[in-house]
């Protein structure tokens, strides 16, 4: 099965993407949203999130630097989003690291219908019931071992789950995709996962279907990473990070079609 990429729809639609996210990578998430042709707004106060999400085209929730007041904002925003049929993507950053994060995500999953959930292998393993992770980075989790559980969880939650890593894995519980593009340098810059989740928000906001949105976003990050790696000397992570933003601004459907290594199994 081949994917018909609609990346350029983001530039055509210029969707407004509401992010409730962490303070480590917030600027990167805003800039990547802009580089793709969407419009970012970061709004966190419980007093304003419902109003903001009501005129946004997608909501991005990222629990990277969680606090009690943010939980209230996330639930308020997400409830309005669900009522208004605004798609929502969740990034369960470091969900296995503390009980607070785990209980928050469990509560969010009880109260909110997510369109896509994107995490690294440790984070998604935790959501599948194998609690893992000491911080926000993936530990050496073997994805193959828990693919059946990811599929089951996606079906149960009626959502798309995207697992990032050396090989990315995406499923809606029936269809599956694996992407082999990328470079290890992407793990040497903080926030490439958060930015991938922001990309999913941009795709969803442009009206791209959830499974295709997740595939497109992981593929774009992998391809732009490969391109940026080719422009820098080994280990020049600062320049690599800068080139990433140039790459997102240059991305197009032809690049995706030509260089993408995406293997899709239809259900
Ligand atoms: N070993 C690897 N080789 C190639 N690409 C990788 C590798 N590990 C991760 N990636 C890519 O890096 C990007 C970010 O994924 P990663 O799993 O590191 O996210 P993350 O842990 O949530 O990151 P962060 O929390 O710092 O934002 C994805 O595009 C993924 O495909
Ligand atoms: C390092 C870090 N800590 C909380 S959020 C974040 C950004 C990467 O997820
Ligand atoms: Mg992350």
Bound molecules: adenosine-5'-triphosphate, 2-(4-methyl-thiazol-5-yl)-ethanol, magnesium ion
**What low-confidence regions span 5 or more consecutive residues with pLDDT below 50?**
none
Tell me what portion of residues adopts beta-strand conformation: 5-15%
Number of strands: 9
Write down the CATH topology: UDP-N-acetylmuramoyl-L-alanine:D-glutamate ligase
Oligomer category: single chain
Task: Give the strand order of the largest sheet, numbering strands 1, 2, ... along the chain.
Answer: 2-1-3-4-5-6-7-8-9
SSE inventory with pairings:
Layout: H1 9-13, E1 16-20, H2 26-35, E2 39-42, H3 49-54, E3 58-62, H4 68-84, E4 88-91, H5 99-111, E5 116-120, H6 121-127, H7 147-157, E6 160-164, E7 168-171, E8 176-179, H8 192-205, H9 210-229, H10 237-250, H11 253-259, E9 262-265
Helix pairs in contact: 2-8, 2-10, 8-9, 9-10
2-(4-methyl-thiazol-5-yl)-ethanol binds next to helix 8.
Outline the structure in words:
The relative contact order is 0.16. This protein has a nine-stranded mixed β-sheet, with helices on both faces. It contains eleven helices and nine strands. The chain is of the alpha/beta class and 267 residues long. Bound molecules: adenosine-5'-triphosphate, 2-(4-methyl-thiazol-5-yl)-ethanol (TZE) and magnesium ion. 2-(4-methyl-thiazol-5-yl)-ethanol binds next to helix 8.
Features:
alpha/beta, UDP-N-acetylmuramoyl-L-alanine:D-glutamate ligase, 9 strands, 46% helix, globular, binds adenosine-5'-triphosphate, binds 2-(4-methyl-thiazol-5-yl)-ethanol, binds magnesium ion
Short précis:
This protein is an alpha/beta fold. It contains eleven helices and nine strands. The protein is globular, with a radius of gyration of 17 Å.
């Amino acid at each position: 099965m081949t994917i018909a990429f609609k990346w350029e729809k983001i530039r055509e639609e210029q969707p407004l993407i509401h992010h409730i996210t962490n303070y480590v990578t917030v600027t990167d998430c805003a800039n990547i949203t802009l580089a793709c042709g969407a419009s970012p707004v970061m709004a966190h106060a419980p007093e304003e999130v419902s109003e903001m999400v009501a005129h946004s085209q997608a909501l991005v929730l990222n629990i990277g630097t969680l606090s009690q007041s943010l939980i209230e904002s996330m639930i308020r925003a997400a409830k309005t989003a669900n009522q208004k049929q605004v798609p929502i993507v969740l990034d369960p950053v470091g969900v296995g690291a503390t009980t607070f994060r785990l209980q928050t995500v469990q509560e969010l999953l009880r109260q909110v219908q997510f369109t896509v959930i994107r995490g690294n292998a440790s984070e998604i393993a935790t959501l599948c019931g194998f609690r893992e992770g000491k911080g926000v980075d993936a530990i050496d989790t073997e994805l193959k071992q828990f693919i059946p559980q990811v599929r089951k969880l996606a079906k149960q939650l009626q959502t798309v789950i995207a697992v990032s890593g050396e090989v990315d894995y995406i499923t809606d519980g029936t269809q599956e995709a694996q992407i082999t593009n990328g470079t290890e340098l992407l793990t040497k810059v903080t926030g490439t996962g958060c930015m991938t989740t922001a990309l999913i928000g941009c795709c969803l906001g442009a009206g791209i279907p959830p499974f295709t949105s997740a595939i497109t976003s992981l593929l774009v990050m992998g391809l732009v990473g490969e391109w940026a790696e080719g422009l820098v000397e080994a280990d020049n992570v600062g320049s690599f990070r800068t080139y990433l933003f140039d790459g997102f601004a240059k991305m197009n459907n032809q690049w995706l079609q030509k260089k993408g290594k995406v293997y899709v199994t239809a259900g």
